[in-house]
Amino acid sequence: MLIYLRVLKESFNFAISALTNNKLRTFLSLLGVTIGIFSIIAVLAAVDSLQKNIKGSLSSLDNSTIIVMRFSFGPTEIPRWKTQQFPDVTYDEYQYIKRNLPDVEAVSFALGVPQGTLKYGDITSTSVDVGAVTHEYYDIEAMELEEGRFFNEAESVSGNPLLILGSEVATNLFGEISPIGKEVRIYGRRATVIGVLKKQGQSLFGSRDGQAFVPANFARRIYGTTKNVVFPQIVIKPEDGVDNEEFIALLEQQLRSLRGIKPGDVNTFFVNQLQGFADFIDNITGQLNIIGLVISGFSLLVGGFGIANIMFVSVKERTNLIGIQKSLGAKNRFILSQFLFEAVILSVIGGLVGLLLVYIVSIIASNFTGDFDFVLSAWNISIGLAVSAVIGLISGIIPAISASKLDPVEAIRTGY
């Protein structure tokens, strides 16, 4: 064991010597490994970060939550021209599902209304994302209030001019003053602020901090059901422990019956489940990983050739030393291990430089993107080091074998 530790130490010294004595040659040789490791780990880190940010943005909603609308979250076999002819879901359908669908914890009707401008006195907050929802949405999305309350069922059904503000919107309009009970103009109408949401922070899909919520029926009186202006949806949260496939089948059956869809005809609506969307995201990120790894593999291939080249040169330069070591009793496996260790160490040094570059880029990217948290995980660092070591091992094996098989007499003679 001690002899191999000594080999490792000597190999490390030889590797450092190669780096310092032949700076340009070593730099060019290790550049391929550095770029390859940088490419692979950058791709893995970027895809992991994308996946983490998307799932973090969806974390407020339960994966079992179902959204019924005329659009599909993922790819569909139904032609686009046909889906564009599908009718929007309606408020009556929401009420029907609420009354008749079993095993439901909550059902909410929501409208995708245009952004609004909120005005309080002379102060204006523009481009505010407005959510027009029924009262049940508060429980489905697990919102938390900083002060005030959410609108209740009676206010929701009546479409009272009420307003829930995100923390950022509330600060923009009122500063440190409590907005509860104040009247704000939205869509040209007066609405009373009854609640302020807790600060959430930024996410990939935006934040509730910059949003405002009004009763769906309040927005319906303004926009009606004009197609391609509002995008109605029914948001359903099943009870815990419900079989999702059976639940969705019963939901589709009731909607088909309500719409009078004939047997054999396709549904004129889409039942989108957040779990399905999460699976779709996993599939996309998996494909991105594969594509990135294949492209990065070519850089590593070039890097491997660079390591092999520097090792062949190292063997040639130290042929005389190898002959002396063998004449003094050094066995073939000792020489083999020595050069393999050196190749691995050189490759790992290149990999460490690549990882350092990824770390620097991740810090810069996180600072510039703001909402996107670019993360270099310990797992990806481990992958980078492992791949570097394997590349060094593969690249150094042939030069190491050629060194171990040198004849000691011929090796010593070559040095003179």
Element layout with pairings:
Layout: H1 2-21, H2 23-57, E1 66-69, H3 80-83, H4 91-100, E2 104-111, E3 116-120, E4 123-133, H5 137-140, E5 145-148, H6 153-158, E6 162-165, H7 167-174, E7 183-186, E8 189-197, E9 211-215, H8 216-223, E10 233-238, H9 244-259, E11 270-273, H10 274-317, H11 319-327, H12 332-369, H13 378-404, H14 408-414
Parallel strand pairs: 4-9, 6-8
Antiparallel strand pairs: 1-10, 1-11, 2-4, 2-10, 3-4, 3-7, 5-8, 6-9, 7-8
Helix pairs in contact: 1-2, 1-12, 2-10, 2-12, 2-13, 10-12, 10-13, 11-14, 12-13
Structural class, please? alpha+beta
Please state the average pLDDT score.
80
What overall geometry do the principal axes of the alpha carbons give?
Answer: elongated
Give the strand content.
15-25%
Oligomer category: single chain
Terminus-to-terminus distance: 34 Å
State the helix count: 14
How many separate structural domains? 2
Main pleated-sheet profile: 6 strands, mixed, barrel
What is the count of β-strands?
A: 11
| Element pattern in H and E | HHEHHEEEHEHEHEEEHEHEHHHHH
Poorly predicted spans: none
Helix content: 55-70%
Give a nutshell description of this structure.
Keywords: Cell membrane, Membrane, Transmembrane, Transmembrane helix. By secondary structure, the chain is α+β, with helices and mostly antiparallel strands.
